[in-house]
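Crash report, auto-generated. Payload:
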Amino acid sequence: MTQELGITTDKQKDPNGWYTEVVKKADLADYAPVKGCMVIKPWGMSLWESIKSEFDEKIKETGVRNAYFPLFIPESYLEKEEDIVEGFDPEVAWVTHGGNEELEERLAVRPTSESIIAPFMSDWIRSHRDLPMRLNQWANVVRWEATDTRPFLRTREFLWQEGHTAHETEEGADEETMLRLEQYEEVIENLLAIPSILGYKPEHDKFPGAKYTTTIETLMPDGKSIQSGTSHQLGQHFADAFDITYMDENEDEQVCYTTSWGLSTRTIGALIMAHGDNDGLRLPPRIAPKQVVIVPIYQEENKEEVLEYAEGLEEELGDNFRVELDDDDSKSPGFKFNHWELKGVPVRLEVGPNEMEDETVTSVRRDNGEKQMGIKRSEISDKLEDLMDDIQESMYDELEEYLHDNIREAESKNEILGTIGKNRGYVKCRWCGNEECEAEVKDQVSAEIVVLPFQEDSVPSGIRSEEEELGGECAVCGEEAVTWAYFAKNY
Amino acid sequence: MTQELGITTDKQKDPNGWYTEVVKKADLADYAPVKGCMVIKPWGMSLWESIKSEFDEKIKETGVRNAYFPLFIPESYLEKEEDIVEGFDPEVAWVTHGGNEELEERLAVRPTSESIIAPFMSDWIRSHRDLPMRLNQWANVVRWEATDTRPFLRTREFLWQEGHTAHETEEGADEETMLRLEQYEEVIENLLAIPSILGYKPEHDKFPGAKYTTTIETLMPDGKSIQSGTSHQLGQHFADAFDITYMDENEDEQVCYTTSWGLSTRTIGALIMAHGDNDGLRLPPRIAPKQVVIVPIYQEENKEEVLEYAEGLEEELGDNFRVELDDDDSKSPGFKFNHWELKGVPVRLEVGPNEMEDETVTSVRRDNGEKQMGIKRSEISDKLEDLMDDIQESMYDELEEYLHDNIREAESKNEILGTIGKNRGYVKCRWCGNEECEAEVKDQVSAEIVVLPFQEDSVPSGIRSEEEELGGECAVCGEEAVTWAYFAKNY
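Recovered output after restart:
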């Protein structure tokens, strides 16, 4: 029974098989009848709810208000902005019938909402006093991806937030774009305990119509990079197309600058991948739906006392932690150990007759298996507090070391190709900004430039940027470099 | 300017026109390009967020876990349960194309999710230990209504929660159905301050395939009844159709009993209708996005001191209330009074040079316009606490009186017709349970039976039920009555 429930695929040898097994067995998601769609099960959903409430609080504190825009976008609206059409056309699900009637105009199930939100912004913004306007929605979106769908990481329907803002000045839009990226970083690093690289996407890989796109990239254990959040400075492109203008203080009409930014259920895929091991999921305490599971260990003759001891513990800890007491009589302690390890609960507390007699508790960490016996019952709450911080930090540190070890510099095209061929992770090099130089690499090893790290002088202070000075030539063509670039295979 | 912004339609004379104007001018919603769809603006959205967080907490405390099921339901899934097909077929929006490809099977945009959730329940439930299984999702749904769409009250796309549960016994399903109805009652009555009538829907008006459907009905000022929430005891009907079974303690296979229950953004329509007046929205304090607005009143020479006084007030009250300081220099105090009245904020605090000098505050209630001067600055927090309770209570009481005054008893068909013809509200009568008796009334006055109030002996104790004893004959046909029935025009 135990074996059947446990993970049977090795994460190193078969990361894809391992991922699928963990998603299913840890009760995170299930496959829907429509290919590429998923059912998010309660354990997975509570991870999303936690990300949502954390990020929602951050954006509300910084002037964003939630709204809800329609699921259906008339085809003619999508077509108003030709970059959007070209960017998303092959991925749109179309509604053609309502009840028994054929519709006069096809309706797109939103792949993203710029083209439905922009006309309303145009209508709602009258004067400079209405600016900045900052809107956000938590919604489902649909992209009819043809290939390689996987729960959370790439699904045809997914949940996300999409922020849409309008500003008087380009600086306002720049600051907004960077602020949201920083807030993504806080969620990914502090809540999910995943270190990341911040920067721009290359020109040819930015959002359709954007002035620039930023990304937060994280390195997965299989050596691929994943985009966990993205923000777009849209310049006046959308404002021009949708007539988003305002009257300035002199009563002159001006065109707004807009931004958009999104974070999706994909982050849960990154979380699973980044922290899981061959026993299943490992959850950082801050996001874990249950932080502590109490497993009572008893014989028939002392069952009642042990359970009472465990219940007292549950009650006390319940004030400060998300606690589960697993008192299911039909399962053995060993079964429960495996079950909760599979689910990724950060700390297990074992209480048996010995603990009861000594007025102690035994704790076991999920992240490294460390067992501590004889923790005084009276000190458990404080100890757990420390333990949670410690686990959160060491899970982050572990990945930071991995990230650090897997960024390799290369100074020529051959070195790039050789390094990518032999290693997982990022290859960092100087780049001239020319797409052809990227293509030369991409064609041979299916790795591409996933992020151009910020330079200190090109972003607001406080945002993490590349420390190493650039000065030098493009590793591929030898022309003058304009930026550092990180090549990687990616999701 | 003030007049243009204010409400120009009289609520009594033209409730529909009034409603539309309030929805637009109080920034609650806007019309989407697709007919019958709406944009929920931030002020409206925060009402939904408040309902959501209140109800979400209640259901989580009573064993429900959130999940997320796919937006798209294959046509063959819908067809597995023929009552569902017949009940929803004319209202389904169909996706026929993904990208440039025609799909092999049409996909329904979910009108409700029984038929997609049931197969998963069937898969996930193995033993009696998995029961009860209680799932809920917060989601958008689409019903291609042909007629009379209005923001919140009836839209083709709306937001809701849908709960779906499975139980070992019929009693378990009964209790679940009643528990959720009671929780709806708590939300509608305590949070939204709207009194309500609880009961069953008539047999011919229940959810397709349900054993019975309960409803929470509230009386709108135009005299129509609106269903604000509903729960369905589905018996074994869906469990049979979708094979939701479990192994009992003797390892015998048994069929589950299931329920479903939903509350939607329609409740916001009820809230607007129930409490609004000719100055706009009126919000009960518990749900108001802003409970207090502070309007500083100053001349150029004392501007700084007054603003400082107002800011101090804002800071202090911010700990206990949702406060807005309206310090917009471009608008007059009079303009602001009207603006915040339109938006429904329960209390306005005015602070000018006099208040500053006397260290006092002036308060004005939105619900009844009552003004109180000379409230001591040092006592304002306590006074406001009391004021909020008072407003919440008196808004409820006002509607309760209205409801009470508009329930009229009738003892014959002619009396029913006459009473409905002359009055708004409910006509209460004894009923034999025969649909034909309802039809005789319905055909003549377009009023129908909206609720059969619970009898004390047919529901768990604690649920509100009809006090008057039944004993007597059906008001229409004279046969023996089996229940009280409430006729009304409805939404």
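Post-recovery validation: The two ends of chain A are 35 Å apart (CA to CA).
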